[in-house]
Amino acid sequence: MTPETFSPKHFLWSFKDGVARVSLNRPDRKNPLTFDSYAELRDLFRDLTYAPAVKAVVFGSEGGNFCSGGDVHEIIGPLTKMGMPELLSFTRMTGDLVKAMRACPQPIVAAIDGVSVGAGAIISMASDLRYATPAAKTAFLFNRVGLAGCDMGACAILPRIIGQGRASELLFFGRSFSAEEGLAWGYFNAILDADELNAHAMAMAAKLSAGPTFANGITKNQLNYEWDMSIDSAIEAEAQAQAICMKTNDFKRAYDAFVAKEKPVFEGD
Question: What backbone torsions phi and psi does residue 132 show, to the nearest 5 degrees?
Answer without folding.
Answer: -135, 165
